[in-house]
Specification:
Layout (H helix, E strand, L loop, with lengths): L1 E2 L2 E2 L7 E7 L1 H9 L3 H15 L3 E6 L2 H4 L18 H6 L6 H14 L3 E6 L2 H7 L6 E3 L7 H8 L5 E4 L5 H14 L5 E6 L13 H9 L4 E6 L8 H8 L4 E5 L17 H18 L11 H6 L3 E4 L14 E4 L10 H4 L20
Parallel strand pairs: 3-4, 3-10, 4-5, 6-7, 7-8, 8-9, 9-10
Antiparallel strand pairs: 1-2, 11-12
Helix pairs in contact: 1-2, 2-5, 2-11, 7-8
Organism: Halovenus aranensis
Pfam families: NeuB, SAF
GO molecular function: N-acylneuraminate-9-phosphate synthase activity
Length: 357
């Protein structure tokens, strides 16, 4: 899978998406700056920390949720009881704002700008701004939206939270029916905010990869980050080529997606840990390597004279010990040595060589 000039499936590090989402609204309020300025600040810090892409959310509350839509998140973390009420607080941005942020991001950083569209209008105005479309888990059965996105002919990142394999398969078929060349990443996701670590089920990444081997596999995470970012490390080890996680500059902010988001330090920790894993992974074909040469020679054992052996004496098993270093006849050749004759005296503890037999 390619996004812009990046081949996301042939890298030591996964393609990492910092989902700013709508968290810049709260950052703006906290720092008393404009929402666009807050968005740019978050883009800058995400890029400096080492992500590959930043992602926002493009929606209007009116087209997304009815006024009777109940919350599906942890209301102890986000107390708003209605989806419509929550989304209404964060739907001020439209085409003009995203165009400004996308252009600013491209001119200042080597980073991809993405946003998740939740309606046809957003799909259309994002078309000139994003190199790929992200589809939220909740829209995996929204075939009209999937078809509209697929017709744009761009790579698609499809989250699969709360879906069956059959539902994933049907969504893939819908996309395939509308696109000549499907460039698709299927992203394991658990639709729980926040996701308890025991519910992450990262083994499902491998199942998705087996079920849809022709497509790229990724992971969209909602587990609160631990100090070592082990959830994302584990997802990468399980085969996720694309990682998406909510991003914030302040995890202590109440509401929305700050409470399970990563910050710039978390991004650096994750990248550093993966770099260490890559360093320790090394080659995939077993063979002795250069630093083992002395160990191979001196830590292995040789056949050694257990006693003095006289000239012309036939060597028995009792004449032989097995000791380090490995500079003489290998112990594997013991049966080839027993029964041979010593052409000259051999001192006890002398390492046996073939020209001594």
């Amino acid at each position: 899978m390619r996004i812009n000039d990046t081949d996301v499936t042939n890298r030591q590090q996964p393609y990492l998406i910092a989902e700013i989402g709508v968290n810049h609204f709260d950052i703006a309020d906290e720092e008393d700056i404009s929402k666009v300025a807050a968005a740019k600040k978050m883009v800058a810090q995400a890029a400096d920390a080492g992500v590959d892409a930043v992602k926002f959310q493009s929606y209007s509350a009116e087209s997304l949720a009815s006024r009777n839509s109940p919350a599906y998140w942890d209301t102890e973390e986000e107390s708003t009881a209605s989806q419509y009420e929550l989304f209404s607080q964060y739907d001020e941005f439209g085409a003009a704002e995203f165009e400004e942020i996308a252009a600013w991001s491209a001119s200042n950083y080597d980073i991809d700008f993405l946003s998740t569209p939740f309606d046809h209008e957003a799909v259309d105005y994002l078309d000139n701004l994003v190199p790929a479309y992200k589809v939220a888990s909740a829209d995996i059965t929204n075939y009209p939206l999937l078809r509209h996105i697929a017709r744009k002919g761009k790579p698609i990142l499809l989250s699969t939270g709360a879906s069956t394999v059959g539902e994933i398969d049907e969504a893939v078929r819908v996309i395939e029916s509308e696109a000549d060349d499907v460039n698709l990443c299927l992203m394991h996701c658990i639709l729980q905010y926040p996701t308890d670590p025991e519910n992450a089920n990262l083994g499902m990444i491998e199942h998705i990869d087996r079920a849809f081997p022709e497509y790229t596999t990724g992971y969209s995470d909602h587990v609160p980050p631990d100090d070592a970012m082990l959830t994302l490390v584990n997802a990468t080890v399980r085969g996720a080529d694309v990682i998406e996680k909510h991003f914030t500059l302040d995890k202590t902010l109440e509401g929305n997606d700050h409470y399970h988001a990563m910050n710039p330090d978390d991004v650096r920790e994750f990248r550093d840990n993966l770099a260490f894993i890559a360093r320790t992974t090394g080659e995939h074909v077993k063979h002795p390597i250069e630093p083992e040469e002395d160990s191979r020679l001196y830590a292995r054992r040789s056949l050694v004279a257990a006693t003095d052996i006289d000239e012309a004496e036939t060597i028995t098993r009792e004449h032989i010990a097995v000791k380090r270093p490995g500079t003489g006849i290998e112990p594997a050749m013991l049966d080839e040595v027993v029964g041979r004759v010593a052409p000259k005296d051999i001192d006890a503890d002398e390492i046996l060589m073939w020209d001594m037999l």
